[in-house]
Amino acid sequence: MTNRRITGFQELLTPVGRRLLEGLDAAEADADPLKAATRLRRDPALAGLPAETAADLVNAALTQARLRRRAREKFGPLADRLFFTPDGLEQATRSPVATHRARRLAERVAPDSAAPVGDLCCGIGADLIALAGAGLAVEGVDLDPLTVAVAGANIEAAGLSALARVREGDVASTRPGDYSAVFCDPARRGRRGRIFDPRAYSPSWDTVLGLARSAPAACVKAAPGIPHELIPDDASTEWISVDWEVKEAALWFGALSDESAAPGPARRATLIRTRTGAPGPEVTTLAGRGLGAPPVSAPLRYLYEPDGAVIRSHLVAEAADAVDGALIDPAIAYITSDSLVRTPLCRAYEVTEVMPFSLKRLRAALRERRAGRVTIKKRGSAVDVDKLRRDLRPSGPEAVVVVLTRIGDRPFCLLCDEVSAADGPSGG
Questions:
Q1: Cβ count near 328 (within 10 Å)
Q2: Residue 121 and residue 221: Cα distance in Å, rounded?
């Protein structure tokens, strides 16, 4: 079956295959694959092909059309030129993240190095393309022959054949010292779906760490929820979010590791914000400074909700310092301040009312504000948000943000207005 999948994909790279793919509407392939397949099978260009080859080609074209449509969220317009596998797309790094990481690597790896960067477990080549796009010579290695074929096609599609190459191989058998630096993205999906325990990654977590430590410089990609106790002391760790959603953790080793004056392993949060029409994303990095626990205060005029990458990197104290703020509870990542600071580190809300949580009181307060559009946020609260939304039965033209939290041992509710990004002085 694997051989037929490879054959079907290789046929997709022929003039006939490219014509079929270019003429296929991805929406049609998603909405009615049977109808799309029937139409493709009638294409005169398939007449000269063996029946099995034609069937494999049609299946490959339909698969690619559907995957390209899904890939636009990660790759933007470039998705319509690239090739994918289902698992490869699922694990592939989003373009803004891959570009950010490649630039960091390019800044620290000598451009005249005779040794290429090694992209171990390269998958379909998202990071491979980004590294070559940053001007680095790079070699990708992957164990799956279909994935290698797809990565090779993507190198060619991106016009980067002069800098990038890919080969089939077991990364556990590679020699990391032969590369100027190593990037490793172990497989985090199995037959049953996503794998959350790094010790079950493929290659194993211990193997990946051994590869990273054997290279002059290295970066390992992990899921953002990696337990802190599994992060080795000799790595500096960066949690990366895109448009407020935490996407991954990157562990940097050797020459790529951060020098930190703060006690403990170095930590960073990198926040990437994409904007339609902008020449590129806005990238903000917050580094740990070894600040102690933030002060604690009753809710003040403004409430700040830190980006998830800030929270995962345990840098809430640094975010609080950036807005001259305090925590409303020492164990909950909500910051309060009398200062309004426009910062990419946090979302800001103006607090209009603070009350102990009571469904009756909350419903009355929303009715008084004529609130029909209610955004509910919670942290440190056991309230079932879906049930609460049904129980509130909001109606009216106004918008309100309801924040459910805990202050001490008591459940509280904060009614807030969202603050425009254009309000307040810049900071962070």
A1: 27
A2: 11
